[in-house]
Design goal:
With about 210 residues, this protein is of the alpha/beta class. About 40% of the residues lie in helices and about 20% in strands. It has a single domain, classed as Rossmann fold, CATH 3.40.50. The chain has seven helices and ten strands. It has a six-stranded mixed sheet with strand order 7-6-5-8-9-10, sandwiched between helices. Strands 1-4 form a two-stranded antiparallel sheet. The protein has a two-stranded antiparallel ribbon with strand order 2-3. Helix 1 crosses helix 6 and helix 6 packs antiparallel against helix 7. The protein starts with a helix and ends in an 8-residue tail after the last helix.
Length: about 210
């Protein structure tokens, strides 16, 4: 997995899918101040990066989840990546909304599946884990056997790690916050002094930067 993690981190920085600004923090929708901003939708605009992520997901799934029957994407950020992976693997694809539709059939899960089928869920980003695990819960409640989740990137928040453990859901990612920081330092994107700031943020993101 080391090759995946380092190369994915390099790509995310190169195309500005991830930006690091320790001295000029971003403000997330939650109100948190953050030295990092991640928008993995940008990876879809770069064929080389898009293909690398697809192929890395496929290798991971073949190695860890060879019994998978279906690939599921979490709406909306992982629908495209999940579709690419399913197509490459020759597997069916479904996707999971954040909630049931309020019209039509009222589906939360779109696409055809059968009870008992084995699912690998694709996600673009793991932050606190709430929305990602919401998709896992929906699939399980519909009778699916969720083998695990594979995501492009994780912030490695303890809250997310605890949530996945509590939900008994295996999580694998192509890269992570700690690897990204190491890669950014090696490539000169950030200084050694900024590394310490970035590490402190991950420990307590909700209170980081609060004066």
């Amino acid at each position: 997995m080391g090759d995946f993690e380092n190369k994915t981190a390099e790509y995310l920085l190169q195309i500005n899918a991830i930006k690091l600004q320790p001295s000029n923090p971003f403000t997330w929708a939650s109100g948190w101040k953050s030295p990092i901003y991640c928008d993995n939708r940008k990876t879809l605009s770069f064929p080389e990066v898009r293909s690398y992520i697809r192929d890395s997901f496929c290798s991971l799934i073949k190695d860890l989840y060879p019994q998978a029957d279906i690939i599921a994407g979490v709406a909306t950020g992982a629908i495209a990546h999940g579709t690419l992976v399913a197509d490459k693997l020759g597997l069916p694809f479904i996707y999971v909304r954040s909630g049931a539709k309020e019209h039509g059939l009222g589906n939360q899960i779109e696409g055809y599946f059968e009870e008992g089928q084995k699912i690998v869920v694709i996600e673009d980003l793991i932050s606190t884990g709430g929305s990602s695990l919401n998709a896992v819960t929906a699939l399980r409640e519909s009778g699916c056997d969720v083998l695990g989740m594979a995501a492009i990137f994780t912030y490695e928040f303890k809250k997310a790690l605890d949530a996945f453990a509590a939900a008994n859901c295996r999580l694998n990612t192509l890269s992570s916050y700690s690897v990204l920081v190491e890669t950014a330092l090696k490539t000169g994107y950030i200084s050694q002094a900024e590394v310490e700031t970035l590490k402190k943020w991950r420990v307590d993101p909700a209170n980081w930067g609060v004066r």
